[in-house]
Give the backbone structure.
Amino acid sequence: MGPAPAGAQHRAAAGDPEVMELALEDTCQEGKKEYSKKCTLVGSPVESLLQPVKLSQAELYKEPTNEELNRLRETESLFHSSLLRLQVEELLKEVRLSEKKKERIDAFLREVNQRVLKVPSTPKTQLTDQTWLPAGVRVPLHQVPYTVKGSFCFLPPAQVTVVGSYLLRTCVRPDVNVDMAVTMPKELLQDKDGLNQRYFRKRALYLAQLAHHLGQDPFFGSVRFSYTNGCHLKPSLLLRPHGKDERLVTVRLHPCPPPDFFRPCRLLPSKNNVRSAWYRGQSPPGDGSPEPPTPHYNTWVLQDMALESHVQLLSTVLGSALGLKDGVALLKVWLRQRELDKGLGGFSGFLVSMLVAFLVSTRKIHTTMSGYQVLRSVLQFLATTDLTVNGISLCLSSDPSLPALADFHQAFSVVFLDSSGCLNLCADVTASTYHQVQHEARLSMALLDSRADDGFQFLLMTPKPMIRAFDHVLHLHPLSRLQAACHRLKLWPELQDLGGDYVSAALGSLTTLLEQGLGSRLHLLAHSRPPVLEWDISQDPPKHRDSGTLTLGLLLRPEGLTSVLELGPEANQPEAADFRQFWGFRSELRRFQDGAIREAVVWEADSMAQKRLIPHQVVTHLLALHADIPDTCVHYVGGLLDALIQSPKEASNTKGHMVVSQSGELVMVPNVEAILEDFAILGEGLVQAVEARSERWTV
């Protein structure tokens, strides 16, 4: 082919701005001819623009294909509208990883694998002899008590494998985390390492040696410690690339024992693996009483053993089913917007992935379903199934030696067993968190069934933190007061099981206490613990009191909220003693109009605004009485608008005046200036009330 003719070159120059302006001044017909000529040129500037598709008369009015009919039918029956379908598809495009980023992440993972396998060994020493540790790294674990039996030496890992959502292609942006299981060799562990935190001490020392050598490698831009799902006994090592890719991905290294190293029968929820004599420093009682079980401690060991088996299960179920993977991604977005997946005990993306696998095994979800269908099915299951009462299991074995679901319900609040039948996947999830998940699932299903135009926006695009979801919110600070609460509530077995985490140990008792005290006033009580931030490898791990503030949210019922009376049993009933013990000095005998003499509690409240804040009195009284938490440590947020409702006297009383219309009817002509003045006064009062209240409870 030769060079283009001069006329063609001149026409190609019409793509310049000056030529385009001249073209607009031509007649409509000339413009059309010029446009048609440009479209035929090869290498024209408008070639990159979208051009209209020319269809013949037959093609324009041909019958839709079966695929198009199925898509229209599916849109009408499942998505309610084409708009919702487009919104879901666009959201999935936004949260998925692009192929270019996957290639860069894969290259980084290969380098991490090679460098981890080259970390040198260390000589064998006792667990308490940690003088071999370099000066620039600290053990990422609180070693309390410090004395423990056993020996340790670092050996290169047996294997390093990628586990988690990245391998399954279900991870979502913007925070891309890749979990890698670092299998410790058998020579490093002993049979009794499951006792008295020996395994967790070796796990932490193993991480410290990895952190020291990887931290000196210039290939990594950041090497830091963090806690795995907020569990302080299970730290992990975070690795990030160097340079412009620092925010591309975060690789989390999880040391784990070889598969089947520990016998599962020793890690059942009824077994004890933390001896009281070692943890409390006291000799066991001589009355022959058994050691308290340590179900959470046992579960954390089992979790490390099951990392690879869980990935294999999810890989088998999800496989090439793109709809299931899209559903898991949508569920993760749903959880993230409601902050339900944060901190210890959160309902994580791993849990919803395993829940999808369970629903597939029970044929409530089919592998051919779309992501939206999977989302609806899981939300419907969560809204109608209470795992705090009736647990579920992925185990198909009929082995009589395996514990029953009832045994797990005695040890845990929420029960969801994996395929082994020994590990409760929801061991760290509290009843309050699961009930909050249930509540949000019900609201989401009602929103989807309502076919609202903005349903997608509220469901998956709008953040819903606790301050927006609950009527009243209270913050407990400082968290060190919960240590005294554990002693007051006699929670020594819980502290022994949780490795001294007094926040987690006291949380269940506090929520139960407040639920009982608020009674019919309360619809839902939930809690939120901020996730522990990562820290430098040269620093000591953060303490329990450094995890910020424990936040409790109260969703109240309008019925009975303003009642000033807590009516108890009659004085001669056996329950009267329990009522007096629960309410303390607030309980008193009262004679009622029907002649009955009952125990009762009367709250001080004169105005309606004070009655709406009766839950504040209930909370502060019960926490001080039973948990030794003074009211100065309870920062209560509620009734912020009451100050505005109580002060309408500053606003203008002249809202308008009555006039007679032409038809003889009385109509009101509004006083616009007075109304605007009222809004200005209310706005200033609202800002002042919020600022004054914030100074009292912001920590």
Q: What stands out?
A: The mean pLDDT is 84. The longest helix spans residues 672-697. The domain at 96-261 is CATH 3.30.460.10 (Beta Polymerase; domain 2). The chain has 27 helices and 19 strands.
